[in-house]
Amino acid sequence: MEGLKKSFGRQIIWEDVTFTIPAGQISALLGPSGTGKSVFLKNLIGLLRPDRGHVWVDGVDVPELHERRLHDLRRRFGVLFQDGALFGSMSVYDNVAFPLREHTKLKEHRVREITMSKMELVGLLGAENKLPGEISGGMRKRAGLARALVLDPEILLVDEPDSGLDPVRTSYLNQLFADINAETGATILIVTHDIGTARVLPDNLGLLFRRGLVAFGPREMMLTSRDPAVTQFFNARREGPIGMAEEKDAAALGLEDAGWHATAKPAPIPPQIMPSSGRPRPFQQRPGRWLQAHGLQAPPGSFIDDEGRDWLVDWDRLTRR
Ligand SMILES: Nc1ncnc2c1ncn2[C@@H]1O[C@H](COP(=O)(O)OP(=O)(O)O)[C@@H](O)[C@H]1O
Ligand SMILES: [Mg+2]
């Protein structure tokens, strides 16, 4: 993304957005609601056009593409929209199979094999014949995810996959993303406001706020950042520039300011989710690596999991080869 700006009429959603989503890694984009996260995803795949700026995918500038080339490019993307965006009059099965029928010439029995395997992956076997209106919101989300996965995308974009899911399903889903990245090397961008997910899953984190990208960088950088908005958001604190109504006014901030610096210490960094195989993902970094490279200490208690294992010390033993 380079110098990206999007507005609707006179409302600027964000501008000067410049950053690179590292290929083959898992990244997450966060921000208070209404900051234009969904709009951002739509700009990436050419469903919306930015006012200015570039979206480079392998040297191709997406906003410049015409319908035909856009259609070809989208074949490489899997997208889960915030609302699932299923066709209401089609069965769940037909919804999931849709991209295969649209983009490939596969025989129906192959379509069936792939569709059923992705439905199994997201835990939807048995719901094939239901209509989207007959299943729960969480199931619609998972159906949308199965559909995003059927073409084995190089780039997977998911908009709030975890909203409306219970914590157990959310951890299954996070495990699934770690496994997909480990197995296929897909570049994954997750839009979420679940801080739990943001702290344990991605390799990189970004924060949209106040009509721009506040910061984007490696997980350890963002989780130890002293930027007030970043610290507040990733530690779910009340103190900071983000308020109930999006932004706090100067008076409210002034009142907090005195206490702010005392509480600005980042919380311990949790260990990252490992693929089910137990082997690190291709681009997964050893815990503490970024901090060490920058001469920084991890906050006390970092990289210790629920069972008390210290991933910083025991990385080689815990990631059996
Ligand atoms: N097609 C559209 N036309 C006009 N305004 C829009 C459109 N889509 C989104 N918006 C506005 O853009 C802002 C950002 O929306 P959205 O990307 O959905 O936020 P988020 O996903 O971060 O919660 C909102 O104020 C929303 O009303
Ligand atoms: Mg949204």
TrEMBL record:
CDD domains given in the database record: ABC_Org_Solvent_Resistant
Domain ABC transporter: 1-235
Pfam annotation, one family: ABC_tran
Keyword field contains Chaperone: no
Region of interest called Disordered, as start-end residue ranges on this chain: 268-307
Record key words, sorted: ATP-binding, Nucleotide-binding, Transport
InterPro entries, alphabetized: AAA+_ATPase (IPR003593), ABC_transporter-like_ATP-bd (IPR003439), ABC_transporter-like_CS (IPR017871), P-loop_NTPase (IPR027417)
Low complexity bias: start-end ranges: 275-289
Stated name of the protein: ABC transporter domain-containing protein
Organism: Actinocorallia libanotica
Organism placement in taxonomy: Bacteria, Bacillati, Actinomycetota, Actinomycetes, Streptosporangiales
